[in-house]
Write a structure and sequence with these properties.
Layout lengths: L1 H9 L8 H17 L4 H28 L1 E5 L5 E6 L4
Antiparallel strand pairs: 1-2
Helix pairs in contact: 1-3, 2-3
Length: 88
């Protein structure tokens, strides 16, 4: 049980991770779970960490999408201004 308590404490803070670091760790967790050589308690703990990493990645992707803007062109094809990407 101590091992599970240690692992569950490790899942708490991924908010400072870059997208790339979070994805790399998430891929590592998936590989470990797919191999099936992890004890049940540890599997549950790393699965929970994977969920936290997945949510963090989704949050970072949503923030990036909100920052992307599309250049608006006039009828002559010249840049006229910008608009949000989801203005389509």
């Amino acid at each position: 049980m101590t091992k599970n308590a240690e692992n569950s404490g490790a899942i708490v803070d991924v908010s400072g991770y870059s997208f790339e670091k979070a994805v790399a760790e998430l891929e590592s967790i998936v590989a470990r779970l797919e191999r099936g050589d992890v004890a049940l308690d540890e599997s549950i703990a790393i699965y929970e960490r994977g969920e936290a990493l997945k949510k963090h990645c989704e949050k970072l992707l949503a923030a990036a999408e909100n920052r992307i803007e599309k250049i608006r062109l006039d009828r002559a094809g010249k840049p006229q201004g910008i608009e949000p990407l989801d203005g389509e």
